[in-house]
Specification:
Blueprint (H helix, E strand, L loop, with lengths): L9 H14 L5 H10 L4 H10 L7 H8 L4 H7 L3 H4 L2 H20 L1 H4 L2 H14 L8 H7 L7 H26 L4 H10 L6 H8 L3 H13 L11 H17 L1 H7 L1 H20 L12
Length: 289
Amino acid sequence: MTTAALEPRAGRRCHNVLNSLHATSYFAPELGKELAALGVTHPRAVNFAVRAAALGPVGAGAVTAAFYNYRHELVARHVPAVWAIASPEDVLAARARAVDALLRRLLGEEAVASAEMAEAARLALRAAEACSRSARPLYSAHADLPVPEEPHLAYFHAATLLREHRGDGHLAVLMSVGLDGLEAVVTHTATGKGMSPKWVFSTRGWSQEDWDAACGRLRERGLLADSGDLTPEGVALREEIEAATDRLDRAPYEHLGAEGVARLTELGAGFARAAVAAGAFPADLLGRG
């Protein structure tokens, strides 16, 4: 019996639907409520604490390095001060409570308790077995956390592992092609699929002046046109970046196999569509405007 070969972009498609559900947590009022109960109220402090908590009570330098596209001065306003308010362990527990409430709200009790959710959790955890710790700090830190017993929380946990595994590899690729954090964001936004400048300014700490300077550097390299569109060279670079990221992130999906990847993508797409339909993301999050 022959096993179907994994199509080159199958892993990317699977990651995208898993990441869509994971990303809902960053816009969840449940998360803000749980962190506020611990005394963490600033939205940026909430974001840094929740995503960095698995690393332990690290300083601003470690968070800036691991997150890549945030202005260091913004990070330093909240880290490590946030750990004096709430310990990483308390933050992780609060995130688990928030995600539980969030998924029940977005997907409904029936989906949370469904056989499909349990199947998706098993498949995603199976894929994550082949993730590599080397040079992947955010993935590796999350891989040290216990797998939750409840299927919907196990699915979220596995989606987080796969998201951070790909993300850590993606940063290595960005560095290899010479894009700093903001330049990477500008080129992604120029594709029409990235975060809008409004959200970049409010969440990443960059200013319009910073943005304009990054655009100027990209124009000098022939990657960005005066219109704000990517040049053909810029389009080719973004394609190269994604293809190289795919190569660094192939092992989990090869481990799961083509049939498993197809099934996980199908299940994950269903959950992601339900979350989007339930209003999980701001309407103006993506785009060039």
